[in-house]
């Protein structure tokens, strides 16, 4: 460990070590060794111990069609059975599965028995509408019990769900329905966030009216806000009506381990989001194993992951992991700042939350809010129920880490900084709370059984202390299986020829500590931005901008932002004259709203600058590195003599 780091190591207390599933660094090392010595044996053991199989598997890893790997392929199981029925069989029927807190503070508790009844009824309803194994169902719902029920019901009947985040626009929803060829859309009339009722069904209607969604036979609508929901006869149905007369039991569909449990669209280097396809068996295994090792889940825990079910974190650590481990979890409809910025702390206090998992952006914004309004500071709340904290979605800066550790965790709770991705299904590099000494800002060491490395452009490992490209050296059970409908894009994006198709390319840069080998993620190495923990492709935003009638050309880059991690900066060439002053400000607003409407509010550029042209080389390539420097307000150090039009740099230097 380098000297600088030595002063900032946080060791788990003897108490934490004693009670942990992985107790002490030797126990961690033993698991790593077990996986190294017999990779398939290690994963097979975990899969047999943690997952209930209807038909036990005899094959473990099948690499014959690499990089299209298969795990446990001849085994059969059902995820919903593993999350619900088996807990009830173990005597947990009356245990609370979900504590739902609505935006207005109203609380609903659902036991495992009740949840199974809800899931079964909705599974039966879907079946009665002709939804079968392998059909795709798009879920466009707010954070709700019905959201979890809908996902579990799809899993129960073997339908493949594709959840679309409720903040995405009609266009984004249409594209995802179209790409997946979905037969059913499940939505709500609206959603409550921060005391406001926002529409959803009208956006769903707009999406379907855009065309390209002809595969949709039914739209099932959850009544939430009582807002406008005009129905198309024969197509649109109320959720409460379709479940009304359904029996409370339903036979699970036993599916092959490789059956696609879900698709989840995420941003990549092109304008088109990719449908990340996940499996059933391998995915479930990792959801359970990480609940046990990373979150060290115990029967009395109250687990709270603040993510939305529209993102992968909400899939693995709301809908599947906590339920598959028979835990009690919080599902929260609202936002951290309503009715005030003490909401998270109040909820931890009220529900006696023990494990709390959130994103650095939320922490940073709550630090700021507590500075501005001392009443919203966590010290005003009793947070002594907490025993473990987690972070996910983006690098956590050491200052935010330390504030979180001291003010939320009372300098008592380890923080697991979990590095992973939509594509990885679950944690990849993360501390284990009772085993790994913590260093703020580092996600520390690979999860047992995950073999990660930092390499150069040729795929050769670089020495510790030297930055490089993060890769995973062996396939793992919960990995992405393919990109829906585009296997070639899968191969090229994740198993590129540069690495002879042998290494999984995460798309992030990383550096390992000289002495400890601890990993620190240094950020994306592709054209993907991370804004408030949300992944956005620069090309997606560029495509949205050039679809506006006034825009001739656009280039989008990221710049570091204290609050959101990265901020979106767009350099735009308009079709007419370059505007200045108030006229420019008006166009900025117009374009921001346009992107919000085309993709969703999370994609709105923070800063839009206009030039008569973009900086290009003589061969016509946009000089993105230069744009990044301009966005950051840095002096231009690179040679601009090859620029076709150096004069435009002055135009692009300043925000409107
Ligand atoms: O850049 C990394 C960052 O988020 C990316 C994955 O985004 P997404 O697929 O939306 O999944 C987010 C939730 C798992 C990664 O490529 N990232 C995620 N977690 C961390 C992180 N960067 C640093 N530290 C983390 N703990």
TrEMBL record:
Catalytic activity: acetate + ATP + CoA = acetyl-CoA + AMP + diphosphate
Keyword vocabulary terms for this entry: Acetylation, ATP-binding, Ligase, Magnesium, Metal-binding, Nucleotide-binding
InterPro entries per the UniProt record, alphabetical: Ac_CoA_lig, ACAS_N, AMP-bd_C, AMP-bd_C_sf, AMP-binding_CS, AMP-dep_synth/lig_dom, ANL_N_sf
Annotated AMP-binding enzyme C-terminal domain residues: 540-621
UniProt xrefs under SUPFAM superfamilies: Acetyl-CoA synthetase-like
Residues where CoA binds: 193-196, 313, 532
UniProt PTM comment: Acetylated. Deacetylation by the SIR2-homolog deacetylase activates the enzyme.
GO biological process terms, semicolon-separated: acetyl-CoA biosynthetic process from acetate
Cofactor(s) demanded: Mg(2+)
Record-listed N6-acetyllysine modification sites: 621
Positions of ATP binding: 393-395, 417-422, 508, 524, 535
One Gene Ontology cellular component annotation held by this UniProt entry: cytosol
EC number: 6.2.1.1
Purpose: Catalyzes the conversion of acetate into acetyl-CoA (AcCoA), an essential intermediate at the junction of anabolic and catabolic pathways. AcsA undergoes a two-step reaction. In the first half reaction, AcsA combines acetate with ATP to form acetyl-adenylate (AcAMP) intermediate. In the second half reaction, it can then transfer the acetyl group from AcAMP to the sulfhydryl group of CoA, forming the product AcCoA.
Name by which UniProt lists this protein: Acetyl-coenzyme A synthetase
Species in which this protein is naturally found: Pseudothauera rhizosphaerae
Gene behind this protein: acs
